[in-house]
Queue: 2 jobs
Job 1
Amino acid sequence: MKSDRYQRGLKKLIEMEGSMGKEVIRKMEEISPDFAQYLVEFVFGDIYSRPGLDLKTKEIITLSSMVTLGTAPLQVKVHVNTALNVGCTEQEIIEVMLQTIPSAGFAAAMNGLLIAKEVFDERKNK
Amino acid sequence: MKSDRYQRGLKKLIEMEGSMGKEVIRKMEEISPDFAQYLVEFVFGDIYSRPGLDLKTKEIITLSSMVTLGTAPLQVKVHVNTALNVGCTEQEIIEVMLQTIPSAGFAAAMNGLLIAKEVFDERKNK
Amino acid sequence: MKSDRYQRGLKKLIEMEGSMGKEVIRKMEEISPDFAQYLVEFVFGDIYSRPGLDLKTKEIITLSSMVTLGTAPLQVKVHVNTALNVGCTEQEIIEVMLQTIPSAGFAAAMNGLLIAKEVFDERKNK
Amino acid sequence: MKSDRYQRGLKKLIEMEGSMGKEVIRKMEEISPDFAQYLVEFVFGDIYSRPGLDLKTKEIITLSSMVTLGTAPLQVKVHVNTALNVGCTEQEIIEVMLQTIPSAGFAAAMNGLLIAKEVFDERKNK
Amino acid sequence: MKSDRYQRGLKKLIEMEGSMGKEVIRKMEEISPDFAQYLVEFVFGDIYSRPGLDLKTKEIITLSSMVTLGTAPLQVKVHVNTALNVGCTEQEIIEVMLQTIPSAGFAAAMNGLLIAKEVFDERKNK
Amino acid sequence: MKSDRYQRGLKKLIEMEGSMGKEVIRKMEEISPDFAQYLVEFVFGDIYSRPGLDLKTKEIITLSSMVTLGTAPLQVKVHVNTALNVGCTEQEIIEVMLQTIPSAGFAAAMNGLLIAKEVFDERKNK
């Protein structure tokens, strides 16, 4: 029996990421079911389910944070997709990357833009 | 004679940060006039003057990036102030910090919240 | 009504950090009650309450991670205290810092050692 | 004539990493023999040869530090192998990754888990 | 009509990086023409065009910074090439990497050396 | 009896940092004599004693790396002093900070410049 937080998180995850999100969860369940559960419950059931900011703004915050880290190309890819799913335009995602130049530097922003382009192209070719 | 980019950047800086921004520029001019010029021209004249995202969203991106870095408490303080100046509520700034927990960790978000509280209190006591 | 995870987390927090931990929670509740709740529920109720590793090993992992980040001096201070509370000796804490030199560099380890010394001295003078 | 520190370091390296460790040294000797020497002498002859913590605890510290960095996937892979060699179970390695979530974030821990899984599978298929 | 800063930057970029630099600009123009413009104008037209340090020293600073970041393998590759173009020897580049060990750690320096070797080999095989 | 590497390192440390360097070693010996020994032997006896780059270039590399880290203000302060001791001018140190803007971002460079200014002023007032 999954917790209410899990149910809420899974619903939010599917709303935001669709089958791609479910695939991430399935893959992580193979390695560590508890990690997968924390991801659904805490990240999606607690944090992304908060009121106060709309999903588009939340994805913009996540993209900015992950592009700044520079260590999470896989996750940037997922969140560029998610950002598009929740209503960001391609140009807005590019603007997020450009806005990180002053704080995170040109290399971080460039690597973010290269991943964004990859996602834009993949979605066009589907 | 200052460039057009400088004029545009200084106007944007004052619009966003008021006297606090001018004070930062004055302080940096003492150390390196060229750094101060790049800050005005590139960060404010080029990046913050871009169309495509409103100032509130730009400040949210900057806050997320700087809280994630964790190395810029001085700049987080300035940008919490700036975010309030351009229309963010205190609660929205807190939401930005909470939204960075999954990517940047609890310590980064906690340190961001502690600085935000400091700014909120300072503004109340003025 | 607090959740079971909160009850379990608070008990774990007090077991590990005593009044210092409660003070952190009280301070964060002033800024963001939800952050304080996530800290108790997720960090202490979920992660620190996991079986599989003893509390001493968990604190060693946390110290290594936070010394490597280099951005969380406040939290390193809390966790040096906590490590001592759950059975680490001062020498073991110093060994953790020395073991981070190859991966995190001399400056990170040195800053960790300086904080550890501060905590050791404070506890002696109480 | 190699120094005593080199002899001690090489013995420790082989004890911990076996042929994989020797291969890393051979590869680095091609690029910079001095780097290879520092790695053997300082990292293995000085740091990993210290008394005070057992090898298993040292590997746990290294894994926590490198997963937190997020910039060293190659080295995380080597050290997941080494951790298994010195007595960590797969489940304990997974616990290390989970314990880094609060400080290093979900993306760092997830990337650590993905590498751990890759190593676990490679060792099963040998 | 491109600005004077763009003209100066493009000339500096070609002086330093040749066709490889032009290829980077072309690629980034496809994703975000404004990013490409900032790269030419600000990074090459403003920063790399400054008097005060020779190009070799500037590339050494950039390599040290990017190896320390650890998040920019693509850019380290470009700048190892550029460093060789502006007069660094292979051995000097290796020395830069070794000099980052104390501050950035062995993993960062090792990853820098592995990329340097890759560039050295590619240039030999051309 | 101290090793040859220690003797060579201590001589190099004193050549570069004078009484300030000896004070750092004395302070670290109080916390962890082994850390102090590694610092003298490895950092100064091995790395800073290498031929191939002059001391001025080595300090420029260290400053770039530490400003990029952003987590070592204490060490940046020591190395700004050291850079001046080994022949860098104040303007050259400022140039190093400006050259890190593209890779490390404006906040990192600004924080480096603020520390540099502090050191310049202290040395003027002595």
Note: Chain E touches chain F at residues 42-43, 47, 50, 52-53, 57-58, 60-62, 64-69, 72, 75, 91-92, 95-96, 98-104 (CB under 8 Å).
Job 2
Amino acid sequence: MSDAPQNEAATESYSYLGPRGTFTEAALAQVPDARGKIWRSVNNVGEALDDVVAGRSVAAMIAIENSIEGGVNATQDALAKIPNLRIVGEYLVKVQFVLVAKPGTTLADVKVVNAHPVAYTQCHHWLDANLPSHGHIPATSNVAAAASLFDNDLADAAVAPPGIVDHYDLDVLAENIGDNDNAVTRFVLVSKTTAIPPRTGADKTSLIVELPDDRAGALLELLEQFSTRGVNMSLLESRPIGDALGRYRFVIDADGHILDERVADSLLGVRRFSPKVIFLGSYPRADKAPIEYIPRYDDDVFIEARDWLRGVISGEPDAS
Amino acid sequence: MSDAPQNEAATESYSYLGPRGTFTEAALAQVPDARGKIWRSVNNVGEALDDVVAGRSVAAMIAIENSIEGGVNATQDALAKIPNLRIVGEYLVKVQFVLVAKPGTTLADVKVVNAHPVAYTQCHHWLDANLPSHGHIPATSNVAAAASLFDNDLADAAVAPPGIVDHYDLDVLAENIGDNDNAVTRFVLVSKTTAIPPRTGADKTSLIVELPDDRAGALLELLEQFSTRGVNMSLLESRPIGDALGRYRFVIDADGHILDERVADSLLGVRRFSPKVIFLGSYPRADKAPIEYIPRYDDDVFIEARDWLRGVISGEPDAS
Amino acid sequence: MSDAPQNEAATESYSYLGPRGTFTEAALAQVPDARGKIWRSVNNVGEALDDVVAGRSVAAMIAIENSIEGGVNATQDALAKIPNLRIVGEYLVKVQFVLVAKPGTTLADVKVVNAHPVAYTQCHHWLDANLPSHGHIPATSNVAAAASLFDNDLADAAVAPPGIVDHYDLDVLAENIGDNDNAVTRFVLVSKTTAIPPRTGADKTSLIVELPDDRAGALLELLEQFSTRGVNMSLLESRPIGDALGRYRFVIDADGHILDERVADSLLGVRRFSPKVIFLGSYPRADKAPIEYIPRYDDDVFIEARDWLRGVISGEPDAS
Amino acid sequence: MSDAPQNEAATESYSYLGPRGTFTEAALAQVPDARGKIWRSVNNVGEALDDVVAGRSVAAMIAIENSIEGGVNATQDALAKIPNLRIVGEYLVKVQFVLVAKPGTTLADVKVVNAHPVAYTQCHHWLDANLPSHGHIPATSNVAAAASLFDNDLADAAVAPPGIVDHYDLDVLAENIGDNDNAVTRFVLVSKTTAIPPRTGADKTSLIVELPDDRAGALLELLEQFSTRGVNMSLLESRPIGDALGRYRFVIDADGHILDERVADSLLGVRRFSPKVIFLGSYPRADKAPIEYIPRYDDDVFIEARDWLRGVISGEPDAS
């Protein structure tokens, strides 16, 4: 049928932690390919990744790191456990909060605030200063906090993302109530395993590596796999493997692309060293900043060395 | 007055994350010095540490690491920010959960479960298998989940620690519903800064170290401060400093005591290297396992080297 | 002609530091392929290697390291400067000295001793004890020392290798006059550049590496190229490059064969790092001791890692 | 007696490898304190150091490194074996050679050249080009080569230092016959063990370190003792210990003075690591170039860290 591609396009969907109005939706809005496609709102990271694994969605947008709270444990642990996933893009969303209430409410009316615990922590200073005697009811998400105002009367106001007013009939009692102006959340777009996208020169490579538990200095050895090839890391997060205290896996973002010789060689070193390596993908950095590296770690240097080794083994005369 | 010491003893209090029945209370119950003293139940780690800083309590028991969830972010961040605190003891509590309900309830009656999000995650498998269509209401703590059953009818059952039945009139619908039998939480007892307790031979030293941001390989250099002196680490957790993505501090537990020469020398190296080091304390390990180390990192070797250096500088003839 | 191969074999020659009776000749006697061939006696290492380069000899036997004196500078420097040479074998000769004189001479007659300076140093204790007031005339070689007794009357006795009496009509005044019973000299057989011989499992790889002079810690970085791949070194000698104080090249013997994955990968690392690498050869060790290495540096581990990397790049699903 | 000091001064003597006219004498001429004192000409390094040990001389001038030939083995080995010596100064002498002969001789008359083997090697190119068919007779020193022209007729000319014509009635047949214009020899002035001289800011520290033989990577660990404290090395020479192949000691020159905190701390690390460390001295560099180092290795940083550690141990409140 001549309209098949169109239909196919129409059924392509993207999963994200909903409902509408979340920071995750704001991240998904940055993806050109997702425009005009179906956006599936799900309840948690597990559901989002399940959609990808099951083929219900072509990709899922999930939060992976918060500049205040650190790595998102649920995401990091899910990526460590679910096979055949690949990060294909990175997106940054500025974390800003507003205090919202049903129309007609004033700040003076607010006795109890509904807020997701993480958002609540990040607005701690403002709430203490402006609502010193408020109570707190926890919500499962920032949007659920706002939605709860219509469900029951337990809270008088909610902490929510600015976009909430596009979806709910709420008044903004205060803007920018977050404690940290630089707060940002990093999201990744995750698809099924696929061929590596081409290099852009401003790429990032993510992996999860378990440390061997048979020797001290294992982390040092892991880090040397990168440093000895001139590869810098922008993220190194420890996560417990979960079977016993003291056993860790590490979530790593390395500067560069798997098709960069120095990155590929680092990955070989890591793979030889670790009992378990999960390659999560090479993809363009959100900030589009070109990777800087010392010239002696250039691709040409690696290629020339391999040519030299081949010549030596085959007994070629020394180059003059 | 002759009874002053008694009075003083009577007013000594210990803070812990309450209410009664929490795992934190179970940890505090392991502290001999705390027996017969006042136990102050507080709402979060910040309040517990505030009690210590303000002198309301001689010490606070706080959770610092969970074998499933990893480091307790709130604790690690609080210890990084509040000065003049010292860890004086370490305690382990096995993490077990029960499903409780008001008397007369049966498992078949349970439609909605109230549970702290972390506990809920850790009982995921059992709940999915036994209550496949249940709903979840989040609570601010494990005990609050149970207590909520008496406050409203939103939930029919709660996930709680086993000790809950000592404090509430609740029936246990199911025991051991946690997914991981080895789950354990590590707690620390925190006091104001004080002189270091003597060595036991089975000690641990905790610190929080910011990485200098002016160079690559900084973490490698940090780890070498320990490895080059034969000091093993049992914990290394990254935490964002919070002012920008990519800036980290590390929470470190090193084997040994600050009065061990190799540990002291490592700390000197760390201090010279890092823009900010927070020494959290040297204290006996919960598991009382003696620290093993290679003989060439023994105190005697360090002392002999210093004697040698002194002799060399003063121009003593070489030892025969 | 049917006898061509025979003729060719007849004209094959091996160069060695002569004349007959030297330790070098004793080393050459250990080479099965050299039996029945022409042995060219030359005056120094340079002449021996020139013979190989010019095609006058198929190989040259030269001393490379002495357990007492260290690396043979002339050999190491010649190998660093003359291209297209390859070490194809290693041989050990026990260093023993005798004191010889023309027939009729007694120990009491000996006033002046002719000896190569190195041999003289190695017999220092015996000579001081038994000929306390002797004088010393230096010779250009151990055999020249003995031969000089027939040329002039300047010396009454000579320090020489035991084999000297097979070639000269001399009496042995004293045997085993060397100070060190374990003294041994290591020789290498050098041919033109050729394809690498197959692995024996007890191989050694020799190279000469210049350090880059643009940074501190360069030697550390060089050594890490081996240690990070589990390759041990049995020799590391510094030699001045010769153009300025403080500029060095290093002569390295690494355990293993260039066809061992861990050795090949080390060589790639070295080549990427160094402004000049001279590969001298992979060849069987004289002591035939099999190379021991940690299993995680086995060939299979390297090959598996490359297969994994290839799969990751091509987008294969993760192995289950 | 009032003239005692003068007498004492008059009897102070300095030993050097003679006779008059050697490069070593030229080095001694650079020592202000040696002017007007007795200069004892000796035959070798061992004799020179014996003079110091026995108190016959207050110091000995000995060659320690040659930019062409590398470390002077005899010196390095003597310093490793004779206890209670201390290097107190460093001197550089440009290595230049002249071809000398008895008056009346012309270049065309020269058939045989007497030369110390090292000097001979360093004039190889000139001799081959200008005296292509010459023979060579080895001498025990550069001056002995010249002196031999008067002893016998075996040689027609000699390779010698330029200063030789101040002491012998010889004609210079050719000047500057050395192959390398930058050739320089480094000498050290050695006294008995004494208190360390004060820092000048342009100092060097020399030591000899044996590697422990119980583990691989030992040299790497040795180098890290310096690099981890920001101390650069200007010399690293391997020397066989002499009891078996593969056992080494290393001769090290480190930038800085033992009273520099970073150097002292490096020495402590080396001493803890090595079975045998010989401290040879901290003394001003010949080139008077101030030592450059990264500010974080400044003395203040070390001192501040020790103060911090002391405060931590004594339980002082954290600095605000």
Note: The longest helix of chain B spans residues 299-314.
